[in-house]
Amino acid sequence: MFDCLFKSNKNLPIGLDIGHSQIKMIQLSGRDGVFGVEAAEELALDRTLEFNGPEWRQKVIEAIGTMYRNGGFTGSQVISCLPSDLLKIKSLRLETGDLDRIDSVIRDEVAQRFELDADQDEIRYMVAGNVYQGESIKNEVIFFGISREHLAGHIELLEEAHLTPVSIDTVPCALFRSFRNTLRRREDQELVSVFVDLGARYTTVVIGKGQEIVFVKQIPIAGDQLNEQVASSLGINLDEAAQLRQRMHDTNPDRIAPETRRAVVDAMTNSIENLAHEISLCFKYYAVTFRGQRPAEAVFAGGEAYESALMDSLRRHLGVKIQIAEPLRGYDLTRANFNRRRNPQMCEWATAIGLVLKGIQMDTTRKQAVMAGSV
Predict the structure, then answer these.
(1) What is the distance of C-alpha 120 from the center of its chain?
(2) How many CA atoms lie within 13 A of 209 on its CB side?
(3) Domain spanning 2-225+268-374, CATH architecture
(4) For residue 177, is pLDDT > 70?
(5) Integer Cα distance of 110 and 89 in angstroms
């Protein structure tokens, strides 16, 4: 969404997903009409470091350098997404039905509500569509905003890692883009799709109609909260809790005593139930606001999508088909060093793939502009 000038380069930009517990880097290439993964790396971050603090930033810069060297990446161009902690996202219902006035309303009224300066900070929005409120018709708008200071800090981090940012995106947009190619058939234009990213600090819910986003919500219930509850209940530290949970949902788990497994699930129950309830409210909001069809399934991505206790609870609460994302399905993975034994669906790569696809989209637009100018 926050685009910089895209410069011509034979290499596709690197997709860089800097999360709270993991960093992922991926680079694609196109050969004979098939996209393949040329390089991919991921590294864990120290969960105890203060997010966006000096030590955290230095560790991120060092990790990016290590991943770049080990993964065989080429070029310096990168597309990254803004951290959810620093980004303000809100669905708003505006009185005006005049699309030309929405921009001024966003700048003059909404920005102040979120303590942003319309002249200094970065503000974007997308019109989700007309909604009925009683007998009147209003516009549903999804607002995105970030302070200029935080945006500059993010770009500075990338540059200190010797990367050249060509675009800065958001998690919801990258997530939706990673699956949008499957929604191109004519019969899919009215299809309601739901994509959910289960991250470390936030769960991001994106609802789309056809190829357009109509609803976004960030829910502050995610993996870190589950780890904290397990750590507190079992008397262990956060890293030990995260490792224990990882072993529980590995494809080939270590032997874990039944009583330990039960204690872990019990510790997470309240947060899991609360999260499932919040996601179900997103479904209800969409149905009431847009008076549209209820989605038939929800696709889940992110590292926490392998948590069986969480997914079982979601199935009970949502009443729709639950599907684990496979964002790399159809890509040639023979040149990348992927270890698929733990999580064969690789759903944790959805956001990173969405970032790379933005680079492809930008490159296509640039080439079309060049061709149009030569006619």
Answers:
(1) 26
(2) 14
(3) 2-Layer Sandwich (3.30)
(4) yes
(5) 11
Beta-strand relationship, 14-18 and 77-81? parallel
**pLDDT value for 188:** 64
Q: What share of the chain is helix, strand, coil (3-state, %, to 5)?
A: 45, 25, 30
In terms of pTM, does the model score above 0.85?
Answer: yes
Contact 174, 100 (CB under 8 A): no
The answer, yes or no, to whether residue 342 has pLDDT greater than 70, is no
Interatomic CA distance for residues 321 and 6, integer angstroms:
39
- Express each pLDDT in 311-325 by its tens digit: 888 888 888 889 999
Across the range 145-168, mean pLDDT stands at: 96
- What are the domain boundaries of the chain? 2-225+268-374
What is the per-residue pLDDT for 332?
86
- Sign of the C-alpha dihedral, residues 286, 319, 198, 48? positive
Q: Which two tokens stand for residue 306?
A: 């392998």
Question: Residue 89 forms beta bridges with which residues?
Answer: 144
Burial class (CB in 10 A: 0-12, 13-18, 19+), 348: buried
